[in-house]
Protein: NAD-dependent epimerase/dehydratase family protein
Amino acid sequence: MPSTAPAAHHVVLGSGPAGTALAAELARRGHRVRLVNRSGDGPRTAGVERHAADAADPAQVRAAIAGAATVYHCVNVDYHRQVDLLPGIQKSILAAAEAEGARLVVLDTLYPYGSTGGAVMTENTPWRATGRKGQMRAHLDEIYLAAHESGRVRVALGRAADFVGPGVLNSTLGGAVFPGALTGGEVLALGDIDLPHSYGYIGDVASGLATLGERPEGDGRVWHLPTAPAVSTREVHAMIEERVGRPLKVVVLDEPRAFGPFDERFMREYAELFYQHTEPQIVDSSAFERAFAVRPTPLGAALDATIAWYREAIARR
Structure:
């Protein structure tokens, strides 16, 4: 039976920090936007329609994306469920996008590269992941690119570094850092904090994905979303200290173990990715910047926005 859902030009699947920020960015750009999660609930954003659907159910996804010119896949699941669930979610979303004739923009990770020994990551970096999650992500990306090459679905992949920004909680520069920085509590750091490490501002992730959604000339390949120049985590801490007016009480984990919002199960699952904190993690987004004439948000401005958001969040408690 044909879907009776109202038409939407841009549909965002997944309402985590990236999906939520992306929906708001698309609305700001004047697009009609539908934001989809399992419940259909969440904070209201001007110009954004909410819709309930299970991303693993092709029929529900097809109904959710009815009328869309462009679909954005920002769905994620808990670390311990990724290998089991993400392949099925991909199959569901690809089938729905193909049936609707919609373009597909995928929020991607750096995991397919695996350990680089500290080499700068570009879109030409070989995919050499050895862990389960990295290999799974690489396999999914091969399927996306093959779907584009075969003419099934027009696809663009946007890879992002570790998130930082308003609404970002479960990140190494998120809920285990800023509340402690603002209240005098402990602040988490992982691995060697003197190594350069790239952080992706959530606003740049959103604007980068929106740009890919508006610019079909970017289809058929992987892009690194706009990322500020890498600095060491110690330098990031110093920038935070300057802004909050107090020294940070930093707890450095040299190996994965439970801390703050990261419980034992999460850290056990994260262990295979801990190399990201024991070697330089440097993302080069210059190809995207040149192609689309954009620049990443300076890290200082990203931290200002993040701290302001966390101040408000703490005040609401």
Notes: The chain has ten helices and 13 strands.
